[in-house]
Design brief:
The protein is an alpha/beta fold. It has four domains: about 15-345, 3-Layer(aba) Sandwich (Rossmann fold), CATH 3.40.50; about 350-455; about 465-660, 3-Layer(aba) Sandwich (Rossmann fold); about 675-810, 3-Layer(aba) Sandwich (Rossmann fold). About 40% of the residues lie in helices and about 15% in strands. It has 26 helices and 26 strands. The strands form seven sheets. The chain has a seven-stranded mixed β-sheet, with helices on both faces. Helix 5 (about 150-165) crosses helix 17 and helix 17 packs parallel to helix 18 (about 565-575). The protein is globular and about 110 Å long. The termini are far apart. About 50% of the residues are buried.
């Protein structure tokens, strides 16, 4: 055995070990490439719907994998299959299972068929929803398709290491960090660096100085669009030179490297990891001269937009071809004059390549059989049931045709099976026999199983769900202690920070001044500028910070100053946070609490209440709309008892109003998904939320003088809404309903109306038309008068309710107009 030693990064290993490592890397690269090639064919033959692969990016990902350690996190995109294979978190069979959309989490551990292939995730949670030890495994945060959408989350994943290293209160959480030594690895295509969230994240990471290594895979194209249309100077690292750290300034270490140079890539990634891991300095690696052998995806051919010269260049600079040539040409002369080689002849590589083709072909076949055989077994059960039904039905001829068509299907889908079964049931409307019941049960079971496969885990359904938390009422001292409501927020946050050492609060103006409404006054001085901190004006990455921190075991409260500003971050909330638990089949979670404020401030850009847009874009996140600060504080206390993501929207005009200060701060809890009846009445049910409730209460007093007793219900939370169906119980008493809010027409009020009338079957109790009262369709105009004429006023509420009562009893309630 040869004992000569060669340098491999910072370690010395025997040449044989080095040789084994290189040839194994080559094998992994070839496996990945063969998966890409066969994956495209599977799409074009119809076995898979769509494919987007990592061909052309294999060699730099091999280098990255060598620097990627257990405990590290990846936040990348759909080209990273080689990295996942190299760290042992993706097999060829799993690759194809994802391509086919296999709904078994054991077959497709990335998403159980909920995302298309190429979206990679590891499992952070045990079956019961509790955390695994993340420092003992390689971690990949679940990918999303929207370009650059992975960037904000990457910031938080990296910042977590900095917090674990520097904040004593969380250093006991050893399942999540070992002294902050973990690196967050980001990847992105060069064209996607044109997205705003890329620049926002790059800037924020430079400010925060977090251990992040950002790789940009540069093949000069974004789908069909060349870099000259994407990037100033056609060079992302060139225009980011200003971020290079110098002397004592913060910033980045920046490397530029060709993507086909295996040796230099390994060296650069080792250096980058060392800088990020030890110094907590972000690193940017611009990996150039990469190729895309099959074009962007299976939806088209790159021959349409690349000329012959470019196509030839791509063949010549293919990173695997370059690595192969290097392996064949490699020679190292020892001190004794011996010549060391990786292979003695090309035949050795040909053997590897032949074995790889066989291995991947077998993996593809096994994945397809595992996927298809499950469905075929269900088809046979359905066919047997249909045969039994057909033998007893007068419409047996038609039913048999469906059965025979199913049996003739070589590659059936579940859709075809259940669709045929449901169509056959229509033939049996007038017939009654045992086989029909069997068919009905089969359909019900299939639909139920389909729900489990494709609709579970939208929200937390484990024991740690906050929906399991029951109300704990505020306790008050005998001497009534009225204070500005902001004091309740401040003192409750103080209790939270004391009770929960892993809670961090951050946002615009959150730290030094204690937020614009003084709800965190003095808390940075008390708990330090890590636990209560300011951020830049950058809403998307504020949310991204929160997602990443929450995925690493911390309990962040991310503050977006005003509700309208939430729109800057809506894409990150909708595509990433809201879908995280769902798209990983419950294997990852991010219990982020988003704090913001809205309602009734005067002016277009600070007074909107875009609740309909929010609740319809972020299903998977709880949306909480407390009417006062005591209720809001109770929501924070409740949320910290579970691990669900949520948005808490505080009333902007409520901080200076007087409320009684509870004595059990940090302990009282507002239940989620539970409405509260704040005034009982017999004539009409009024459902509202937030600041509008104060106007409803004002109008209710005036209505009472006219003999109209209003029952007022505070929705409290919109997602979820009224899990106990208390609204319909009220409607059964009053028989009339109005929903009032300050969103646009058809927004949250329409959502509430549907919940009560449809989901709670409230329609059956009505003796007049249900209605809504909302703001105008435009944003509210500026000033007191603008607010009055743009949003529901107390007079609007009075007249709308009075008009309903007039229609119901015109003799008693004479028309106002």
């Amino acid at each position: 055995m040869l004992k000569e030693k060669v340098a491999s990064n910072t370690q010395e290993i025997t040449f044989n070990d080095f040789k084994t490592e290189v040839l194994n890397d080559y094998r992994i690269a070839k496996v990945s490439r063969e998966c890409s090639l066969l994956g495209r064919r599977e799409v074009l033959t119809g076995k898979a719907k769509f494919g987007i692969f990592g061909d052309g990016k294999e060699v730099p990902q091999l280098a990255m994998a060598k620097a990627f350690k257990k405990g590290d996190f990846r936040s990348g995109y759909y080209r990273d299959q080689t990295l996942m294979m190299a760290i042992g978190e993706l097999t060829a069979q799993q690759f194809f299972a994802g391509l086919y959309g296999h709904s078994d989490i054991k077959e497709d551990p990335m998403s159980a068929g909920r995302q298309m292939g190429g979206h990679f995730a590891t499992h952070s949670l045990h079956e019961n929803g509790s955390w695994k030890n993340l420092t003992e495994q390689y971690n990949s945060s679940a990918d999303i398709s929207p370009t650059a959408g992975q960037m904000p989350r990457l910031l938080g994943l990296a910042q977590a290491s900095k917090i674990y290293r520097n904040e004593k209160s969380v250093q006991h959480k050893t399942k999540f960090s070992k002294n902050g030594n973990e690196v967050a690895w980001g990847t992105i295509g060069n064209a996607s660096t044109s997205e705003g969230v890329f620049f926002e994240t790059i800037n924020a990471a430079g400010v925060l100085q977090v251990p992040m290594v950002m790789s940009i895979w540069d093949d000069e194209y974004g789908i069909s669009v060349h870099a000259k249309h994407q990037t100033t100077k056609e060079n992302i690292s060139e225009i980011l030179k200003g971020f290079q750290r110098e002397n004592d300034t913060n910033g980045y270490e920046i490397f530029v490297i060709n993507g086909w140079d295996y040796v230099k890539l390994v060296d650069v990634y080792q250096k980058a990891a060392k800088i990020a891991r030890e110094e907590h300095v972000p690193v940017l690696i611009h990996v150039k001269e990469l190729t895309q052998p099959q074009g962007h995806s299976t939806s088209g051919s790159h021959e349409r937009y690349k000329d012959k010269e470019r196509l030839q260049w791509e063949q010549d600079h293919d990173c695997i071809a370059k690595m192969r040539k290097w392996i064949l040409n490699f020679e190292l002369e020892t001190e004794t004059g011996d010549i060391l080689r990786f292979v003695d002849s090309e035949e050795e590589l040909l053997i590897i390549e032949k074995e790889v083709k066989k291995e991947v072909t077998e993996a593809k076949r096994n994945a397809w059989n595992a996927y298809l055989n499950e469905i075929k077994a269900e088809l046979l059960i359905a066919a047997e049931i249909l045969e039994n039904v057909a033998s007893k039905s007068v419409n047996g001829t038609f039913i048999n045709k469906h059965k025979n068509d199913l049996l003739a299907t070589a590659e059936p889908t579940r859709k075809e099976i259940i669709s045929s079964a449901r169509k056959c049931l229509r033939y049996l409307k007038e017939e009654h026999f045992g086989a029909k019941i069997e068919l009905q049960n089969f359909i019900k079971a299939s639909v139920n199983e389909g729900y489990k496969r494709y609709s579970t885990h939208l929200v937390n359904d484990s024991d740690s769900s906050v929906l399991n938390e029951v109300e704990r009422k505020p306790i008050y001292s005998p001497e009534k202690n009225l204070v500005d409501a902001r004091i309740i927020m401040r003192d409750n946050f103080n209790a939270i920070l004391k009770k929960h050492p892993d809670v961090l609060i951050f946002g615009e103006d959150t730290g030094l001044i204690g937020d614009v409404n003084q709800g965190l006054e003095g808390l940075q001085d008390k708990y330090g500028d890590i636990r209560v901190s300011d951020t830049g004006i950058r809403e998307a990455t504020i949310i991204g910070q929160g997602i990443g921190l929450a995925m690493r075991g911390l309990r962040p409260i991310a503050e977006v100053q005003y509700l309208d500003y939430l729109l800057y971050a809506l894409q990150i909330m909708s595509d990433d946070l809201a879908t995280l638990r769902y798209r990983t089949f419950g294997k990852q979670k991010a219990p982020l609490i988003i704090r913001t404020r809205g309602h009734r401030l005067e002016g277009i850009w600070h007074a909107g209440s875009p609740m309909g847009g929010i609740i319809n874009n972020i299903r998977g996140i709880h949306v909480l709309v407390p009417r006062n600060m005591t209720k809001a504080a109770g929501f924070y206390n409740t949320l910290l008892e579970g691990d669900d993501p949520a948005v808490v929207i505080e009333c902007l005009n409520g901080y200076r109003l007087k409320e009684e200060l509870p004595t059990n701060l940090g302990d009282f809890k507002t239940p989620i998904g539970v409405v509260e009846t704040i005034k009982e009445g017999t004539d009409i049910t009024v459902v509202s939320y937030g600041s509008t409730l104060r106007l409803v209460e004002e109008a209710a007093k005036d209505l009472a003088q006219d003999g109209i007793e209003v029952e007022i219900i505070d929705a409290q939370s919109l997602l979820p809404f009224d899990l106990n169906h208390d609204c319909v119980k009220s409607l059964a008493k009053t028989n009339k309903l109005i929903v009032i809010d300050e969103d646009v027409p058809g927004g949250a009020s329409a959502y509430i109306l549907q919940e009560i009338l449809e989901n709670q079957n409230g329609y059956q109790y009505l003796d007049s038309k249900p209605t809504t009262l909302t703001a105008k369709a435009h944003r509210p105009a500026y000033g007191t008068d603008g607010d009055y004429f743009s949003k529901p006023s107390a007079e609007d509420i009075f007249e709308k309710i009075y008009d309903i009562m007039h229609e119901f009893n015109p003799n008693r309630f004479k028309s106002l107009y």
